[in-house]
Amino acid sequence: LYRLGDPEELEYMGIRDYIGNHSICLIEWPERGVGVLPTPDIRVRIETDGSARTLQIESASALGERIAQRYQADER
């Protein structure tokens, strides 16, 4: 959403068509959509250290917790 000038522009983009119970929507720069975007179920943080990258998943809801646990179980 880095090009977004105002969160209300999301309505004109049809954001509600993308977000639903049976969809996965990854949003970069979500702070630009505050007030229009729903609370996320998970937050993904990608950190770089030279050529290496670290992926962190943080849950923000019960569904997000189940997703994070599933990811962690797959990593083992």
Helix segment count?
3
Largest sheet: 2 strands, antiparallel
What is the strand content?
Answer: 15-25%
Quaternary:
single chain
Number of self-contained structural domains: 2
Please bin the fraction of helical residues. Answer: 25-40%
What is the H/E string? HHEEH
**What's the arrangement of strands in the largest beta sheet?**
1-2
Q: What is the approximate shape?
A: globular
Description:
With 76 residues, the chain is α+β, with helices and mostly antiparallel strands. The chain folds into two domains: 1-37, no CATH class; 39-76, no CATH class. The protein is built from three helices and two strands; from the N terminus they run H-H-E-E-H. It has helices at 9-13, 15-18, 62-75, and strands at residues 42-49, 52-59. Strands 1-2 form a two-stranded antiparallel sheet. A hairpin with a 2-residue loop joins strand 1 (42-49) and strand 2. The chain is globular and about 40 Å long. It starts with 8 loop residues before the first helix and ends with a helix.
